[in-house]
């Protein structure tokens, strides 16, 4: 049962997306009251404590209204695959507009789902922690605009801001890049079947990512002046969110078996480090979905 007096109010953008829907579910399980922001009526998760709000989170007036009296907000939207101008407009400018509205409304916490793609992961770079070098302006549009969104949110004064940086997000769904869209591309276009087998495949399951986002947004992770121990009050803290190590052979070999296709294993330099997620674990986060289960879920969805 939702306690109207003590349950935190959390606004979630992109509530019908792969990550947003799971964040709503995790918050509902934690007894939060969730304002689920979607663009189309009837697409928000139907769960205890979850109320649908239809509108454009990038619109200042809508953002101000939906964040009024909220305790926290979670932003999950970025139009990956769109042309760069659209990613800039929605992912950078829109997210910043929404964050400022949440700050002005007095929200105590802002959780942003960023990406580990903002890190330079060139061959030979090695392991990547939260202080690692970021990509330059010559990187792909997604990495650059996500990097710029992180920088913009770091400048939004007021809330305790947490930037979650996951690598590949596994989990079922039509919009899932790694469970649905990437396999479809591999199946339909033989030219994409070139893979360096030893290249690192960093991943996290969407339910585990959502669990950390929900815990932070709901105030379940104790704040600390030391970023390695918890969110720094009033500051912007980066947290990598990655599960056990894996290789490209693990992931693409699973796809090859499930789709009945052959992969060409290339011999060339590739990044073989790992995404260091020790900070998340010190915050109390422990992934619950192992690699075998996650890849089994991918395979089952393709057969």
Write structural notes for this entry.
With 303 residues, this protein is of the alpha/beta class. The chain has a domain at 9-170 and 204-242 and 274-283: Rossmann fold, CATH 3.40.50. It has nine helices and eleven strands. It has helices at 18-29, 60-67, 84-104, 141-154, 177-188, 206-217, 248-259, 278-282, 291-302; strands spanning 9-13, 33-38, 50-54, 72-75, 109-113, 160-165, 168-170, 194-195, 203-205, 236-240, 264-265. The strands form three sheets. A seven-stranded parallel sheet has the order 3-2-1-4-5-6-10, sandwiched between helices. Strands 7-9 form a two-stranded parallel ribbon. The N and C termini lie far apart (39 Å). The mean pLDDT is 97.
CATH class descriptor of the domain at 9-170 and 204-242 and 274-283: Alpha Beta
Q: Note the main sheet.
A: 7 strands, parallel
Strand order within the widest beta sheet: 3-2-1-4-5-6-10
Please report the number of helical segments: 9
Please identify which CATH superfamily of the domain at 9-170 and 204-242 and 274-283 we are dealing with: NAD(P)-binding Rossmann-like Domain
Any idea what the radius of gyration is?
19 Å
Q: Unreliable runs, pLDDT <50, ≥5 residues?
A: none
Question: What structural class do you assign from the helix and strand content?
Answer: alpha/beta
Principal-axes geometry comes out as: globular
Strand content: 15-25%
Helix content: 25-40%
CATH architecture of the domain at 9-170 and 204-242 and 274-283: 3-Layer(aba) Sandwich
Query: Per CATH, what is the topology of the domain at 9-170 and 204-242 and 274-283?
Result: Rossmann fold
Order of helices and strands: EHEEHEHEHEEHEEHEHEHH
Q: Total strand count, please?
A: 11
Mean pLDDT: 97
Measured between the Cα atoms of the first and last residue, the distance is: 39 Å
């Amino acid at each position: 049962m939702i306690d109207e007096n003590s349950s935190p109010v959390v606004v979630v953008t992109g509530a019908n997306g792969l990550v947003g829907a799971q964040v709503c579910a995790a918050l509902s399980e934690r007894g939060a009251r969730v304002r689920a922001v979607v663009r189309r009526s009837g697409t928000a998760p139907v769960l205890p404590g979850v109320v649908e709000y239809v509108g454009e989170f990038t619109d200042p007036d809508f953002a101000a209204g939906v964040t009024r009296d909220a305790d926290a907000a979670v932003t999950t939207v970025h139009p990956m695959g769109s042309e760069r101008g659209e990613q800039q407009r929605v992912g950078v400018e829109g997210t910043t507009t929404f964050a400022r509205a949440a700050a002005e409304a007095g929200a105590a916490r802002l959780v942003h789902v960023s990406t580990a793609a903002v890190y330079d992961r060139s061959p030979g770079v090695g392991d990547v922690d939260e202080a690692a070098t970021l990509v330059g302006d010559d990187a792909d549009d997604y990495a650059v605009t996500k990097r710029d969104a992180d920088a913009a949110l770091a400048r939004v004064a007021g809330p305790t801001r947490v930037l979650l940086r996951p690598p590949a997000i596994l989990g079922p769904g039509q919009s899932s890049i790694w469970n649905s869209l990437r396999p479809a591309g591999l199946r339909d276009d033989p030219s994409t079947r070139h893979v360096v087998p030893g290249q690192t495949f960093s991943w996290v399951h969407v339910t585990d990512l959502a669990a950390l986002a929900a815990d932070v947004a709901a105030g379940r992770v104790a704040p600390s002046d030391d970023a390695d121990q918890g969110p720094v009050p009033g500051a912007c803290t980066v947290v990598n969110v990655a599960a056990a190590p894996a290789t490209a052979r693990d992931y693409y070999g699973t796809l090859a078996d499930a789709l009945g296709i052959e992969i060409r294993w290339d011999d060339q330099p590739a990044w073989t480090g790992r995404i260091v997620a020790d900070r998340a674990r010190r915050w109390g986060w422990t992934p619950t979905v192992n690699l075998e289960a996650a890849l089994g879920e991918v395979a089952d969805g393709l057969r």
